[in-house]
UniProtKB/TrEMBL annotation:
One of its GO terms (biological process) is peptide transport. The lineage of its organism: Archaea, Methanobacteriati, Methanobacteriota, Stenosarchaea group, Methanomicrobia. This is Nickel import system ATP-binding protein NikD. InterPro entries: AAA+_ATPase, ABC_Ni/Peptide_Import, ABC_transporter-like_ATP-bd, Oligopep_ABC_C, P-loop_NTPase. Gene3D superfamilies: P-loop containing nucleotide triphosphate hydrolases (3.40.50.300). GO terms for molecular function: ABC-type nickel transporter activity; ATP binding; ATP hydrolysis activity. It is a peripheral membrane protein.
Length: 313
Protein backbone atom coordinates (compact mmCIF):
# COMPACT_ATOMS: atom_id res chain seq x y z
CA UNK A 1 0.00 0.00 0.00
CA UNK A 2 1.31 3.44 -0.94
CA UNK A 3 2.00 5.93 1.82
CA UNK A 4 2.89 8.61 -0.75
CA UNK A 5 1.59 8.93 -4.31
CA UNK A 6 2.72 11.71 -6.64
CA UNK A 7 0.93 12.21 -9.94
CA UNK A 8 1.78 14.62 -12.76
CA UNK A 9 3.64 16.94 -10.39
CA UNK A 10 4.93 20.17 -11.91
CA UNK A 11 6.90 22.78 -9.97
CA UNK A 12 7.89 26.04 -11.69
CA UNK A 13 9.56 29.24 -10.51
CA UNK A 14 8.93 32.55 -12.31
CA UNK A 15 12.17 34.53 -12.76
CA UNK A 16 13.14 37.62 -14.78
CA UNK A 17 14.98 35.31 -17.20
CA UNK A 18 11.99 33.02 -17.70
CA UNK A 19 10.06 30.16 -16.12
CA UNK A 20 12.28 27.63 -14.34
CA UNK A 21 10.68 24.19 -14.83
CA UNK A 22 12.24 22.50 -11.81
CA UNK A 23 9.96 19.43 -11.74
CA UNK A 24 8.18 18.24 -14.87
CA UNK A 25 5.19 15.86 -14.81
CA UNK A 26 6.63 13.47 -12.20
CA UNK A 27 4.74 10.31 -11.22
CA UNK A 28 6.10 8.41 -8.24
CA UNK A 29 4.87 6.11 -5.48
CA UNK A 30 6.42 5.22 -2.13
CA UNK A 31 5.14 2.11 -0.40
CA UNK A 32 4.50 1.85 3.34
CA UNK A 33 7.79 0.91 5.00
CA UNK A 34 9.81 1.39 1.80
CA UNK A 35 13.06 3.33 1.48
CA UNK A 36 13.30 5.05 -1.90
CA UNK A 37 16.42 6.84 -3.10
CA UNK A 38 16.30 9.86 -5.43
CA UNK A 39 19.62 10.29 -7.24
CA UNK A 40 20.89 12.66 -9.90
CA UNK A 41 23.18 15.61 -10.48
CA UNK A 42 22.82 18.87 -8.58
CA UNK A 43 19.94 20.84 -10.08
CA UNK A 44 18.02 17.81 -11.34
CA UNK A 45 14.96 18.63 -9.21
CA UNK A 46 15.37 16.16 -6.32
CA UNK A 47 15.26 18.66 -3.44
CA UNK A 48 12.44 20.67 -5.03
CA UNK A 49 10.35 17.51 -5.30
CA UNK A 50 10.96 16.68 -1.64
CA UNK A 51 10.08 20.18 -0.44
CA UNK A 52 6.95 20.18 -2.61
CA UNK A 53 5.66 17.19 -0.63
CA UNK A 54 5.73 19.18 2.62
CA UNK A 55 4.80 22.44 0.88
CA UNK A 56 7.90 24.35 1.95
CA UNK A 57 8.59 26.07 -1.37
CA UNK A 58 8.45 29.85 -1.57
CA UNK A 59 7.42 31.55 -4.79
CA UNK A 60 6.74 28.30 -6.63
CA UNK A 61 3.87 27.39 -8.94
CA UNK A 62 2.88 23.83 -8.02
CA UNK A 63 0.45 21.70 -10.02
CA UNK A 64 -0.58 18.05 -9.92
CA UNK A 65 -1.49 15.76 -7.06
CA UNK A 66 0.43 14.64 -3.96
CA UNK A 67 -1.38 12.16 -1.72
CA UNK A 68 -0.19 11.12 1.72
CA UNK A 69 -2.23 8.19 3.04
CA UNK A 70 -5.13 9.31 0.88
CA UNK A 71 -4.93 13.00 1.84
CA UNK A 72 -4.44 15.39 -1.08
CA UNK A 73 -1.71 17.60 0.34
CA UNK A 74 -1.95 20.38 -2.23
CA UNK A 75 -5.60 20.93 -1.29
CA UNK A 76 -5.09 21.14 2.49
CA UNK A 77 -5.13 24.53 4.17
CA UNK A 78 -2.02 25.62 6.06
CA UNK A 79 -3.45 24.68 9.47
CA UNK A 80 -4.12 21.12 8.29
CA UNK A 81 -0.67 20.91 6.71
CA UNK A 82 1.01 22.02 9.95
CA UNK A 83 -0.64 19.07 11.73
CA UNK A 84 1.17 16.70 9.35
CA UNK A 85 4.60 18.35 9.28
CA UNK A 86 6.90 16.92 11.91
CA UNK A 87 4.21 14.72 13.42
CA UNK A 88 3.63 12.43 10.39
CA UNK A 89 5.94 13.76 7.67
CA UNK A 90 9.36 15.01 8.71
CA UNK A 91 12.30 16.52 6.83
CA UNK A 92 15.97 16.05 7.64
CA UNK A 93 17.52 19.08 5.94
CA UNK A 94 20.80 18.83 4.06
CA UNK A 95 22.81 21.36 6.05
CA UNK A 96 23.62 20.90 9.74
CA UNK A 97 24.09 24.68 9.69
CA UNK A 98 20.28 24.84 9.67
CA UNK A 99 20.58 24.61 13.45
CA UNK A 100 20.07 27.98 15.13
CA UNK A 101 23.51 29.05 16.42
CA UNK A 102 22.12 31.03 19.39
CA UNK A 103 19.90 28.30 20.83
CA UNK A 104 20.97 25.18 22.67
CA UNK A 105 20.46 22.05 20.58
CA UNK A 106 18.15 20.40 23.11
CA UNK A 107 16.00 23.52 23.25
CA UNK A 108 15.70 23.53 19.45
CA UNK A 109 14.52 19.93 19.38
CA UNK A 110 12.14 20.57 22.31
CA UNK A 111 10.72 23.63 20.56
CA UNK A 112 10.05 21.56 17.45
CA UNK A 113 8.26 18.94 19.56
CA UNK A 114 6.06 21.61 21.15
CA UNK A 115 5.27 23.36 17.88
CA UNK A 116 3.82 20.25 16.27
CA UNK A 117 1.83 19.47 19.38
CA UNK A 118 3.57 16.21 20.27
CA UNK A 119 4.11 17.15 23.88
CA UNK A 120 3.59 19.85 26.49
CA UNK A 121 6.41 22.15 27.57
CA UNK A 122 7.22 20.06 30.63
CA UNK A 123 7.83 16.84 28.70
CA UNK A 124 9.35 18.30 25.52
CA UNK A 125 12.90 18.62 26.89
CA UNK A 126 12.80 15.03 28.15
CA UNK A 127 11.66 13.84 24.70
CA UNK A 128 14.41 15.91 23.07
CA UNK A 129 17.04 14.11 25.14
CA UNK A 130 15.43 10.77 24.28
CA UNK A 131 15.57 11.66 20.57
CA UNK A 132 19.29 12.47 20.88
CA UNK A 133 19.87 9.17 22.67
CA UNK A 134 18.02 7.34 19.90
CA UNK A 135 20.55 8.56 17.31
CA UNK A 136 23.49 7.45 19.40
CA UNK A 137 24.46 10.79 20.91
CA UNK A 138 26.82 10.10 23.85
CA UNK A 139 25.89 11.86 27.11
CA UNK A 140 22.74 13.17 25.42
CA UNK A 141 21.55 15.12 28.45
CA UNK A 142 24.88 16.95 28.59
CA UNK A 143 25.00 17.70 24.86
CA UNK A 144 21.36 18.84 24.81
CA UNK A 145 22.52 21.77 26.94
CA UNK A 146 25.20 22.86 24.44
CA UNK A 147 25.22 25.10 21.35
CA UNK A 148 25.69 23.98 17.73
CA UNK A 149 29.20 25.48 17.47
CA UNK A 150 30.33 23.05 20.18
CA UNK A 151 29.28 20.06 18.03
CA UNK A 152 31.43 18.32 15.42
CA UNK A 153 30.05 17.93 11.89
CA UNK A 154 28.98 14.35 12.57
CA UNK A 155 27.29 15.28 15.84
CA UNK A 156 25.44 18.13 14.13
CA UNK A 157 24.13 15.66 11.56
CA UNK A 158 23.00 13.34 14.36
CA UNK A 159 21.22 16.30 15.96
CA UNK A 160 19.46 17.04 12.64
CA UNK A 161 18.35 13.41 12.42
CA UNK A 162 17.14 13.55 16.04
CA UNK A 163 15.18 16.69 15.15
CA UNK A 164 13.54 14.85 12.26
CA UNK A 165 12.69 11.78 14.36
CA UNK A 166 11.58 13.56 17.54
CA UNK A 167 7.84 13.09 16.99
CA UNK A 168 8.11 9.57 15.52
CA UNK A 169 6.90 10.43 11.98
CA UNK A 170 5.72 7.75 9.53
CA UNK A 171 7.39 9.34 6.49
CA UNK A 172 10.87 10.89 6.52
CA UNK A 173 12.31 13.01 3.71
CA UNK A 174 16.10 13.11 4.09
CA UNK A 175 17.75 15.74 1.89
CA UNK A 176 21.48 15.08 1.35
CA UNK A 177 22.17 14.06 4.98
CA UNK A 178 25.70 12.82 4.13
CA UNK A 179 26.76 15.92 2.19
CA UNK A 180 30.12 17.38 3.25
CA UNK A 181 30.96 14.62 5.75
CA UNK A 182 34.29 12.81 5.71
CA UNK A 183 34.32 9.10 4.87
CA UNK A 184 34.30 7.79 8.44
CA UNK A 185 31.51 10.09 9.66
CA UNK A 186 29.50 9.44 6.50
CA UNK A 187 29.67 5.70 7.10
CA UNK A 188 28.34 6.21 10.64
CA UNK A 189 25.49 8.45 9.42
CA UNK A 190 24.53 5.97 6.67
CA UNK A 191 24.38 3.15 9.21
CA UNK A 192 22.36 5.35 11.58
CA UNK A 193 19.80 6.31 8.93
CA UNK A 194 19.45 2.67 7.91
CA UNK A 195 18.88 1.65 11.53
CA UNK A 196 16.40 4.37 12.54
CA UNK A 197 14.21 3.96 9.43
CA UNK A 198 13.65 0.21 9.59
CA UNK A 199 9.98 0.72 10.53
CA UNK A 200 9.39 3.93 8.58
CA UNK A 201 9.00 5.12 5.00
CA UNK A 202 11.96 7.10 3.66
CA UNK A 203 12.49 9.37 0.67
CA UNK A 204 16.28 9.61 0.56
CA UNK A 205 17.46 12.48 -1.66
CA UNK A 206 21.14 12.28 -2.53
CA UNK A 207 23.88 12.44 -5.13
CA UNK A 208 25.86 9.95 -3.04
CA UNK A 209 25.34 6.72 -4.98
CA UNK A 210 27.09 4.52 -2.43
CA UNK A 211 24.87 5.81 0.40
CA UNK A 212 21.75 5.18 -1.70
CA UNK A 213 22.93 1.64 -2.44
CA UNK A 214 23.38 0.88 1.26
CA UNK A 215 20.11 2.39 2.48
CA UNK A 216 17.44 2.12 -0.21
CA UNK A 217 15.12 -0.62 -1.47
CA UNK A 218 14.43 1.18 -4.76
CA UNK A 219 16.13 3.94 -6.72
CA UNK A 220 14.58 6.70 -8.85
CA UNK A 221 16.96 8.61 -11.14
CA UNK A 222 16.15 12.26 -11.95
CA UNK A 223 17.50 14.32 -14.82
CA UNK A 224 16.43 17.80 -15.87
CA UNK A 225 13.30 17.80 -13.71
CA UNK A 226 11.95 14.37 -14.63
CA UNK A 227 12.42 10.73 -13.68
CA UNK A 228 14.37 8.77 -16.29
CA UNK A 229 14.70 5.40 -14.52
CA UNK A 230 13.16 3.58 -11.53
CA UNK A 231 13.91 0.11 -10.22
CA UNK A 232 15.04 -2.10 -7.40
CA UNK A 233 18.38 -0.94 -6.05
CA UNK A 234 20.22 -4.12 -6.98
CA UNK A 235 18.82 -3.99 -10.53
CA UNK A 236 19.68 -0.33 -11.04
CA UNK A 237 23.28 -0.88 -9.97
CA UNK A 238 23.74 -4.21 -11.76
CA UNK A 239 21.93 -3.29 -14.98
CA UNK A 240 21.27 0.43 -15.51
CA UNK A 241 19.06 0.90 -18.56
CA UNK A 242 19.17 4.65 -19.20
CA UNK A 243 22.33 6.22 -20.70
CA UNK A 244 22.25 8.91 -18.01
CA UNK A 245 22.23 6.33 -15.20
CA UNK A 246 25.12 4.53 -16.90
CA UNK A 247 26.98 7.84 -17.08
CA UNK A 248 26.46 8.49 -13.37
CA UNK A 249 27.98 5.14 -12.49
CA UNK A 250 30.92 5.62 -14.89
CA UNK A 251 31.70 8.88 -13.10
CA UNK A 252 32.34 7.05 -9.81
CA UNK A 253 36.01 6.80 -8.71
CA UNK A 254 35.87 2.99 -8.72
CA UNK A 255 34.66 3.13 -12.35
CA UNK A 256 37.42 5.47 -13.55
CA UNK A 257 35.72 8.86 -12.99
CA UNK A 258 34.63 9.22 -16.62
CA UNK A 259 32.52 12.36 -16.67
CA UNK A 260 29.33 12.67 -18.71
CA UNK A 261 30.12 14.98 -21.60
CA UNK A 262 28.61 18.44 -21.66
CA UNK A 263 26.58 20.02 -18.88
CA UNK A 264 23.03 19.81 -17.59
CA UNK A 265 20.73 22.06 -19.67
CA UNK A 266 18.99 25.15 -18.40
CA UNK A 267 15.64 24.42 -16.79
CA UNK A 268 14.35 27.55 -18.50
CA UNK A 269 15.26 26.34 -21.99
CA UNK A 270 14.79 22.56 -21.86
CA UNK A 271 15.92 20.58 -24.95
CA UNK A 272 13.23 19.21 -27.25
CA UNK A 273 12.72 15.48 -27.45
CA UNK A 274 14.70 13.45 -24.95
CA UNK A 275 16.23 15.91 -22.52
CA UNK A 276 19.43 13.90 -22.30
CA UNK A 277 20.03 13.54 -26.04
CA UNK A 278 22.55 16.47 -26.35
CA UNK A 279 24.84 14.63 -23.89
CA UNK A 280 24.05 11.04 -24.90
CA UNK A 281 26.71 8.83 -26.51
CA UNK A 282 24.18 7.03 -28.72
CA UNK A 283 21.34 9.37 -29.73
CA UNK A 284 19.12 8.60 -32.71
CA UNK A 285 17.17 10.96 -34.94
CA UNK A 286 13.96 10.32 -32.99
CA UNK A 287 15.63 11.35 -29.70
CA UNK A 288 15.78 15.00 -30.74
CA UNK A 289 12.17 15.10 -31.95
CA UNK A 290 10.01 13.08 -29.55
CA UNK A 291 9.89 12.93 -25.78
CA UNK A 292 10.21 9.30 -24.63
CA UNK A 293 7.66 7.96 -22.14
CA UNK A 294 8.59 6.18 -18.92
CA UNK A 295 7.98 2.50 -19.76
CA UNK A 296 8.58 -0.88 -18.15
CA UNK A 297 11.50 -2.94 -19.43
CA UNK A 298 10.22 -6.14 -21.01
CA UNK A 299 12.94 -8.25 -19.40
CA UNK A 300 12.66 -6.70 -15.93
CA UNK A 301 9.15 -6.19 -14.44
CA UNK A 302 8.95 -3.07 -12.30
CA UNK A 303 12.10 -1.57 -13.85
CA UNK A 304 11.07 1.63 -15.66
CA UNK A 305 13.11 3.74 -18.07
CA UNK A 306 12.68 6.74 -20.36
CA UNK A 307 14.70 5.91 -23.50
CA UNK A 308 14.02 5.07 -27.16
CA UNK A 309 17.33 3.37 -27.80
CA UNK A 310 17.82 0.84 -25.07
CA UNK A 311 17.00 -2.81 -25.76
CA UNK A 312 13.83 -3.53 -23.79
CA UNK A 313 14.03 -7.29 -24.30
Amino acid sequence: MSILAINDLKVQFPTPEGLVKAVNSVDLELEEGERLGMIGETGSGKTVLGLAVVRLLSGAEVEGNIEYRGKKLLLLDEAEMRKLRGREISVIFQSPNSLNPVLKVGDQIAESIRLVGCSNRQDAKKKAVQAMEAVGMPDAELWADRYPHQFSGGMKERAMIALGLACDPRLIIADEPTKGLDANIKAQVVELIRDVTTDKSLLFITHDLSAAAQICDRIAVMYCGEIVEVGRTEEIFANPLHPYTEGLFRSLPIMGMKAIRGASPSLIDIPSGCRFHPRCDRPCENCAKAHPPLVEAESSPGHLMRCFQHDRG
